[in-house]
């Protein structure tokens, strides 16, 4: 008698539009503003909002490309699979896939360092111990189950967004007239090369704060009606994050001296204390939730990329094996968490952020080229899929390469 065949384990389709948007907001906000707003202001000064806006524009063209590709190729390991289906070059697929993983691990490490800075305000333990506790506990959440981990991340996202809204409210409530100065902060004078170079120099740090919308596409195999809701999730995430970042950086740049921002590892807590006159305990707790949320969501994404590459035969099959109990790639989650832990302990925060941005811009360039090639070959998108004009991937490539060159020329 032949043994019964093993039941194939699949990812569970259980995430709707709200869940995807909360996921995108959670990883994006946790990835940047709570950790790196101070560093952005140090480089761009009062024009920090311009650095965030520039990064959002770069992200906008690429976001449109991701939105179409998520419908053309609705598979996990999005970026690598897009390049695979468009170019059909095995080594290029592997290169892009590993670049996505490297960027994700570096980004998670940077956020873990930022989270440890906030936790240290409350718990007198060494940075290394705090980072270890943060990474390992978030890995446990990521491996629990996609519906459970996204639900936890969604709740944490609501808390972190509320924290930023409180800062914006108090920052502008007593001085509504300050909003008249916002347009000037978004557009440095054309002849002011010091200001322009500061904005370009800060752009790589600000760009890191937008990392996240691209992670949404790696949940495409766990989303309900992905072709319909994925483009909306990407667009809503990017618009909401841009508004929040511009306003928070504007308030911070106008209310906190640069010297004080340089001396703190918890810039949002300092900003909250100055604006409200209240003890920073509440916002410190919010910042801890926000940064930990960024870590767990990136771990979820990176494990799905690993799963997708293993499924396509681009990584060893054992790494991508799904747990029959949680229906998540536990082995990939553990491996990635251990690498993140090592990076977080041994690498400075600004180096992590800039390196992550540089790697991701290279990946985004390839994603835009993949869509450009699909369109150039006349490959039609599936019926009902979101589509954009061919100029979007072209401008996406130009913006990504331009930001890389500008940051290398004018970065500090």
What does this structure look like?
This protein is an all-alpha fold and 412 residues long. It has one domain: Amino acid/polyamine transporter I, CATH 1.20.1740.10. It has 17 helices and no strands. It has helices at 17-31, 33-44, 48-72, 78-87, 90-119, 127-144, 146-173, 182-186, 193-208, 213-216, 226-255, 258-262, 267-276, 281-311, 330-346, 349-376, 391-410. α2 (33-44) crosses α11 (226-255) and α3 (48-72) packs antiparallel against α11 (226-255). Residues 1-7 have low confidence and may be disordered.
CATH superfamily: Amino acid/polyamine transporter I
CATH 2nd-level architecture: Up-down Bundle
Query: How much helicity do the residues have?
Result: over 70%
| Count of spatially separate domains | 1
Overall CATH class: Mainly Alpha
Number of helices: 17
Number of strands: 0
Taking Cα atoms only, what radius of gyration do you get, to the nearest Å?
A: 21 Å
Report low-confidence residues grouped into runs of 5 or more: 1-7
Shape: globular
H/E element order: HHHHHHHHHHHHHHHHH
Give the amount of beta strand, in percent. Answer: under 5%
State the separation between the terminal residues, measured CA to CA: 70 Å
Largest sheet: none
Structural class: mainly alpha
Q: Residue-averaged pLDDT, rounded? A: 82
CATH topology: Amino acid/polyamine transporter I
């Amino acid at each position: 008698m032949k043994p019964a065949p093993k039941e194939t384990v699949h990812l569970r389709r259980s995430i709707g539009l709200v869940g995807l948007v909360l996921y995108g907001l959670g990883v994006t906000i946790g990835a940047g503003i709570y950790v790196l707003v101070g560093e952005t202001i140090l480089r761009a000064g009062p024009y920090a909002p311009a650095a965030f806006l520039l990064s959002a524009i770069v992200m906008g063209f690429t976001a449109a490309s991701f939105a179409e590709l998520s419908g053309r190729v609705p598979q996990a390991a999005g970026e690598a699979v897009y390049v695979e289906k468009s170019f059909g070059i095995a080594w290029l697929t592997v290169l892009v896939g590993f670049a996505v993983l490297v960027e994700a691990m570096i980004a998670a490490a940077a956020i873990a360092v930022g989270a440890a800075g906030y936790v240290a305000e409350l718990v007198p333990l060494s940075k290394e111990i705090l980072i270890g506790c943060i990474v390992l506990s978030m890995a446990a959440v990521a491996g629990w189950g996609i519906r459970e981990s996204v639900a936890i991340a969604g709740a944490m996202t609501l808390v972190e967004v509320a924290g930023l809204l409180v800062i914006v409210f108090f920052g502008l409530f007593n001085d509504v007239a300050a909003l008249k100065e916002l347009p000037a902060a978004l557009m440095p004078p054309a002849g002011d090369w010091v200001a322009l170079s500061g904005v370009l120099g800060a752009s790589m740090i600000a760009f890191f704060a937008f990392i996240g919308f691209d992670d949404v596409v790696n949940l495409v195999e766990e989303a309900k009606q992905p072709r319909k809701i994925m483009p909306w999730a990407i667009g809503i995430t990017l618009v909401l994050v841009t508004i929040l970042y511009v306003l928070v950086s504007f308030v911070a740049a106008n209310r906190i001296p640069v010297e004080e921002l340089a001396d703190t590892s918890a810039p949002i807590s300092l900003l909250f204390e100055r604006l409200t006159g209240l003890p920073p305990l509440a916002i410190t707790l919010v910042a801890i939730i926000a940064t930990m949320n960024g870590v767990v969501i990136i771990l979820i994404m990176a494990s799905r990329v690993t799963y997708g590459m293993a499924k396509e035969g681009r990584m060893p099959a054992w790494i991508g094996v799904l747990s029959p109990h949680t229906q998540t790639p536990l082995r990939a989650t553990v491996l990635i968490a251990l690498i993140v832990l090592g990076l977080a302990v041994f690498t400075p925060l600004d180096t992590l952020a800039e390196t992550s941005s540089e790697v991701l811009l290279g990946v985004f360039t390839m994603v835009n080229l993949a869509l450009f090639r699909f369109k150039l070959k006349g490959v039609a998108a599936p019926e009902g899929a979101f589509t954009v004009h061919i100029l979007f991937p072209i401008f996406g490539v130009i913006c990504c390469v331009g930001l890389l060159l500008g940051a290398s020329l004018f970065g500090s």
